[in-house]
Amino acid sequence: MRSFIYSLALIILTSMTASADPVQSLYDLKVNSLDGKPADLAQYKGHVTLVVNVASHCGFTPQYAGLEKLYTDYKDKGFFILAFPSNDFGGQEPGSPAEIATFCSTKYNVTFPMFEKVVTKKGDTEAPVYQFLTTGFPPPSWNFCKYLIDPTGKVLKFFPSKVKPDDKELTDAIDAAIKG
Q1: Distance between CA atoms of 133 and 51, rounded to whole angstroms?
Q2: 3-state helix, strand, coil in the chain (%, to 5)
């Protein structure tokens, strides 16, 4: 009986400490789009992407216009912007998915992909996307932080909120990533 209990305890302990393979690429993750439908980020594999945590009631919210221009200027080169609304900083994204979509489409004519509201801050409820992005890179310190992702899904560079979408440092990094 003792060996049975020992074996059972070993099985339980092993299953509790065994972790799933760590995410190797942003494109390994599955999320939900802003309308709640499942979305596989694998569809962006082979493309350069910019992941941005966004909010509708922030001093940086006018960056939506610059992000849309950046997207339209680069989308024919295989570039995508992936926006993740977040209410983490100052409660500046309190809206429902429908309210966020309406705001973005009517105020800024946003056409780049938007996903469900996520938690970007470290902790038990942090979204897997941000767990991946912040491995080796800073977590967002406010809304509109940007992570440049290469075609394999690896993070190339982090840009803080103050870096605008038309900043030369950002556009040069995008150009370099697209050229490979």
Answers
A1: 9
A2: 40, 20, 45
Taking all residues of the chain, what is their mean pLDDT, rounded to a whole number?
A: 91
Residue 63 DSSP SS3: helix
- 23-179 topology per CATH: Glutaredoxin (3.40.30)
Which residue among 58, 129, 133, 148 is the active-site one? 58
C-alpha–C-alpha distance, residues 80 and 93, integer Å: 22
Domain boundaries along the sequence of the chain:
23-179
Rounded mean pLDDT of 64-83?
Answer: 98
pTM over cut 0.90 = no
HSE-up (13 A, CA, CB side) for residue 19: 3
Burial class (CB in 10 A: 0-12, 13-18, 19+), 109: exposed
Q: Is 58 a catalytic residue?
A: yes
Residue 82 contacts residue 147 (beta carbons within 8 Å): no
Q: Count of CB atoms within 10 A of residue 119's CB?
A: 16
- Give the start-end residues of each E strand in 61-139: 79-85
Which range is least confidently modeled, 16-30, 35-49, 86-100, 139-153?
16-30
Given this model, what pLDDT does residue 15 score?
Answer: 42
